């Protein structure tokens, strides 16, 4: 019982101090301790730093594949990226033997990253469950499947079967300490464009939201997946918060907000950093307002023809405004293509600038991460 004015002031001050940390809760109240710890780590770290990520970094790279503990980023800096991007693309639309092989290969990758103390984020380029055409939208071939996989749709049971494969995988990735590896799960990304079958031109807002909410609910509440942080990430086709949130399924169904943006950062030689920074600020500002995490979920410059792109474009954009972003991820380095790569490899002309990017105190790589999955007192120590 509070007996004095001073005690009341003290109590209110304590509540106000801890409120941001208490209210910054995940949408899964039963998330594993390690997943909660990752969420809090990202929340705290984003105030002063940003984690660097690279898609498929440890699976393959420029001219190589399947080598233990290798990444192009590590060959340049001595450290893997802090965030490793993987994909559930192999979990459906293929023969069972191929799916099992993809699951087993990805399981090792996620567990290895977790055991090293790194972070995994998962994209989902999954094949259209109602037609041919793969994950891209192909006119005259692709079916508008979002309306078909929602509850009551003709392909809903098939979608549940696909989600069971995802759920089984999520509940199998245990590290050397026996705990489940947390993952940032980013389904239906770039949904504001038309290139994927789940894109805006191919489904209504209501159907998209229904499928998003069902996906989270089925994984979390029916399949018992409690090691996912759910990320919402359109492409860069917005200029206001209202446009950004047009297909947002509500704060109850999202842990992290983000953006994919290649177009403002040099694609086809076109730069519009002012627009790119404005959009990043919209993402960051909404995350602060809603007590969510924020991230620059995909970007990059194919072939990196600009040798100072890392510091003069990317880092400059990240530092221009007061934005809090958990991580920035660049796309993959293809095994065979001489031009399709987004991170430098040994001998590339952007290596000196990338090392400046690496050495900047603002950026964090895997070697910089400590106790990511350890519980902290109320997530702040």
From TrEMBL:
Pfam families: Glyco_hydro_26 (PF02156). It is found in: Secreted. The keyword Secreted applies. InterPro entries: GH (IPR017853), GH26_dom (IPR022790), Glyco_hydro_26 (IPR000805), MANB/E (IPR016714). One of its GO terms (molecular function) is mannan endo-1,4-beta-mannosidase activity. Its EC number is 3.2.1.78. Residues 33-367 form the GH26 domain. It comes from the Bacteria. Substrate binds at residues 125, 195, 262. Keywords: Carbohydrate metabolism, Glycosidase, Hydrolase, Secreted, Signal. The keyword Secreted applies. The active site is at residues 190, 298. It is an enzyme of class 3 (hydrolase). GO terms for biological process: substituted mannan metabolic process. Residues 1-25 form the signal peptide. It catalyses: Random hydrolysis of (1->4)-beta-D-mannosidic linkages in mannans, galactomannans and glucomannans. Its main location: secreted. SUPFAM superfamilies: (Trans)glycosidases. GO terms for cellular component: extracellular region. The record marks 189 as: Plays an important role in maintaining the position of the catalytic nucleophile. PROSITE patterns: GH26. Belongs to the glycosyl hydrolase 26 family. This is Mannan endo-1,4-beta-mannosidase. It comes from Runella rosea.
């Amino acid at each position: 019982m509070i007996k004095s004015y001073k005690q009341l002031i003290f109590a209110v001050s304590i509540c106000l101090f801890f409120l941001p940390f208490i209210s910054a809760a995940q949408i899964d109240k039963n998330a594993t301790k390690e997943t909660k710890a990752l969420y809090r780590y990202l929340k705290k770290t984003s105030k002063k730093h940003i984690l660097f990520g690279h898609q498929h970094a440890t699976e393959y790279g420029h001219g190589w594949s399947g080598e233990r503990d290798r990444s192009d980023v590590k060959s340049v800096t001595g450290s893997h990226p802090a965030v490793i991007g993987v994909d559930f693309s192999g979990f459906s639309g293929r023969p069972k033997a191929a799916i099992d092989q993809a699951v087993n290969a990805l399981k090792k990758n996620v567990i290895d990253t977790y055991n090293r103390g790194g972070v995994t984020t998962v994209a989902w380029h999954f094949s259209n469950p109602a037609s041919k055409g793969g994950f891209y939208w192909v006119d005259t071939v692709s079916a508008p499947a979002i309306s078909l996989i929602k509850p009551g749709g003709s392909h809903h049971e098939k979608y549940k079967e696909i989600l069971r494969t995802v759920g089984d995988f999520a509940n199998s990735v245990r590290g050397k300490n026996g705990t489940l590896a947390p993952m940032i799960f980013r389904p239906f990304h770039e949904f504001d464009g038309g290139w994927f079958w789940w894109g805006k031109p191919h489904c209504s807002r209501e159907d998209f939201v229904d499928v998003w909410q069902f996906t989270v609910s089925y994984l979390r509440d029916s399949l018992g997946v409690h090691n996912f942080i759910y990320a919402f990430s359109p492409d860069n086709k917005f200029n206001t918060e209202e446009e950004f949130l047009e297909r947002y399924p509500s704060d109850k169904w999202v842990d992290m907000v983000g953006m994919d943006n290649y177009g403002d950062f040099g694609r086809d030689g076109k730069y519009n950093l002012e627009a790119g920074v404005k959009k990043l600020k919209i993402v960051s500002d909404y995350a602060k307002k809603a007590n969510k995490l924020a991230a620059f979920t995909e970007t990059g410059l194919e072939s990196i023809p600009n040798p100072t792109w890392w510091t003069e474009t990317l880092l400059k954009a990240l530092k221009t405004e007061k934005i809090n972003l958990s991580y920035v991820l660049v796309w993959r380095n293809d095994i065979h293509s001489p031009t399709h790569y987004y991170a430098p490899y040994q001998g590339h002309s952007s290596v000196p600038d990338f090392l400046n990017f690496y050495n900047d105190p603002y950026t964090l790589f895997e070697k910089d991460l400590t106790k990511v999955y350890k519980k902290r007192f109320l997530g702040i120590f």
